[in-house]
Amino acid sequence: MNNSKTRSCPACNYPLNEIDFKLGEKILDSVGTTRDWNLSVLSCEKCGSIFKTVHENVESFYENEYEIPFYDFEDDQVYKINTDNSVTYRTDFQSKLVKDFVKNSSSKIIDVLDFGCARAQTAAKLSTINELNLYGYDISKVHYDTWKHSAPRVSFFGPDQLSIYYQKFDLVYSFFALEHAFELSAPLEQIKLLLKDKGSLIVALPNSITNPADLLLCDHVNHFSSKGLMDLFHNKGFNIIKYSDSIYTGAHYIELNLDKSKESKYYKYNFESNNQLNSSYSLWKKDENALKSRLDNLEKNKFILIHGAGIYAKWILSILKNSNFNGKIKICDANPSLHGKELDSNIILSTKKIHDEYISYIDLICIATSPKVANEIQKEYKNKGYKNLFFGISDRSKILS
Length: 401
Prior knowledge:
CATH architecture of the largest domain: 3-Layer(aba) Sandwich
CATH superfamily of the largest domain: Vaccinia Virus protein VP39
Distance between the termini: 27 Å
Helix content: 25-40%
Structural class: alpha/beta
CATH class of the largest domain: Alpha Beta
Number of strands: 21
Strand content: 15-25%
Number of helices: 11
Number of domains: 2
């Protein structure tokens, strides 16, 4: 369906078409709150990217409402569970990416900016490196008290101070911020102004095929294909040094610089076909129907386990609320910092407690993780003797084949 008010693709300037597809009356934002925003979903036939247009007054959303829901500054998201069962947290992984970049850089890096820093956990970890001067920028001051008390060696500034820092930074990094930008051109121009003449930029943002929950979120409005991401930065005058869809699991990872003495290099990559994101998007309706079917087949007063306490779990809980399910729910997660906390009035348990005390009572396990991780979790439950029903998010890897 063509959008009557034509909007061009931010990546390649091709006219966008509206997708006639809805994800329910209320959808989640990235902190797990349900919103009744009126959205249009638009697709680019040329580069395969997807964008959302929000038909609401959302100017104050990030300034006043967007607060990442952790209980303590040290609480963090699990990036992966290692083979020895140790945990790698997302902030540790991100700070290592920046440290390695600084270490391997051919030019000296001193002044470093976390662009869209939110709680600034990555900047706080990097600020322990004496050779670096760390700065944080965000349009919201919701986390001001967090910055003041938990990241004292990081200097913070907001939109009203941007011009003071023009041409200041050797390196800007931005982890999971650009997918939120309702008007994408503004932050990219700001980054160009903040960087020194030959400064570098590191960006990570969700890959909506390997991280399909990204498509569910109403405040994630930019869903780039790898081709679209290349087009975006190339057209903005950045030199593309490295791109990977595997360095950061579930994300596009890209390294760039702004060497104005050189022509912008277009990094050649084996791009996905332009309908893959559309296919991934449409699978969410299939997943919703599959979960409803599982629930319809359960008898009354049955026991459901939700494995995972993130966005996937909140999506599953939203469907349970709108169904006739009246049984018991338990939630578990591998992240120790979440154990004992609540999600929708349910105490989050450890996986060990589930295996030790509840596994024999469970009638349906809903695996609330990415499809890649879900396959391993399902194997683990089967190895522990669980023989009843599973539900998991559709595997998007088939789209890539």
